[in-house]
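Let us work through a complete example step by step.
Step 1: write down the sequence.
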Amino acid sequence: MIFFISNKIYSRIISITSGIVLFTINLTASSTLLNVKDFGASVEKGEYATLQIQKAIDSCAVTGGGTVVVPAGEYLCSTIILKDNVTLELLSGATILASNKESDYNQHVNFDDTGGGSIPVLIYAEKANNVSIRGNGKLKGQPTYYIDTLNYNPFIDEDYFAAKEAGVDLKISRWERPNVSLVVLSECTNVKLESISIIDSPFWGLHLHWCRDVQIKGLKIVSKLNVAANSDGIDIDGCQNVTVSDCIIETADDAICLKTTRNKDGTRDCENIVINNCILTSSSCALKIGTESYGDFSHIIFSNCVIRNSNRGLGIFIRDGGMVSNIIFTDIIIECNRKPVGWWGSGDAFRFAVMKRNENSKIGLIRNVMVKDIIAFVQGSTRVIGHENINNIQNINFHNLQFFITPESTPDIRAKEAFSIKNASEVLLDNIKINWIHYDGSKTKWSNSFIFENIHQLNLRNIYTVNQPKDFPPLLLLNVKKITKTNVN
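Step 2: predict the structure and record it as tokens.
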């Protein structure tokens, strides 16, 4: 059954004692409301609903757009393609279940260095305008995993050797194909995603690629924290003008990650991004920029977030020559606990680093970054590391940070210093407090509270330490040129 709302302007003027109120509904295009059940979509176990849901979307687009409603029930599907001016609405109790047969998928994406190869997609749109997914229903994957041997990787060499030294099994979780990405929107404009749940995505849950003018609000994204490798929550890739708010994300891999990947058509910059009011848990990094960084990142704010039980709180990793500039992390509570070897992170509040993916990679830059008003309960060493012998981390400011550091919960101990910065220039630390909790030298490798190495122009104000390990000074300076200190204990 198809319902049409005509292209008219309805106005009603109501007189009330305090004045006149004008109510206007302005529909600039015909609006269609379609139910996928009317196109034969079945919830019978083992029956596919892909073609029927696609027919509903195509019919909606032909009439100029509107809403395609998915009622309660579980609909087994492969690739569904959204079209211009169409909203896909999943009602309460509705689940679109991703097929676990790779041969079912007719849409794949492929980006260099994402680690996934050719990725099959459940919900896809390309170069579409005014597309939305909303409602209280679910998109759900059917991932399977196996445990493999962790081989040496120079990117996590410290983790690898610490595990070998401690005699820890070098194991890693990997996914079986199909490694479906549940939502991929590429080169779309005016995108809205609201209130839906993305559950057990085999690969990245929501991948926005080269999109503009995007609003994401109230999503719930969940995957298994102990096995779900590469199951990022939200990946914002080469996009502009994006807001993310009020989301609850609990994923084994990065919770919210900004990237500038590369494909056959090149790369695009990531800019004008606001992440706000989210609750995050990650077995890797909760809020991250990189590691895919072929383009630049600028004008980005992460604020008012709660991070719990994560392997790393905040991350910037530039490996492909991109530049990060004009970034703010503010008003964030962080709780980090060490995860087993193989997950990226060390129970640290944050790590910012510039490095080369391989010998042919360009060297990038991080500059104009502010980190402020952070409370962090951590087990690992927080580090900022420029590329060796190059001050390519510039003008980075830290204000009002408190660290509460406890011994690691895993046998492969890594943490040494509380907070270190290496290969940087124009560095300011103001009102920073380090609290060492339950110090026992026999169970930790703790050393200095602060280590600054190869720094040009370092400014320290109001720096405090509590229960500093007695065998080490709080502050270690190595090749620091031009330093000012005020109230440093």
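Step 3: interpret the result. The mean pLDDT is 92.
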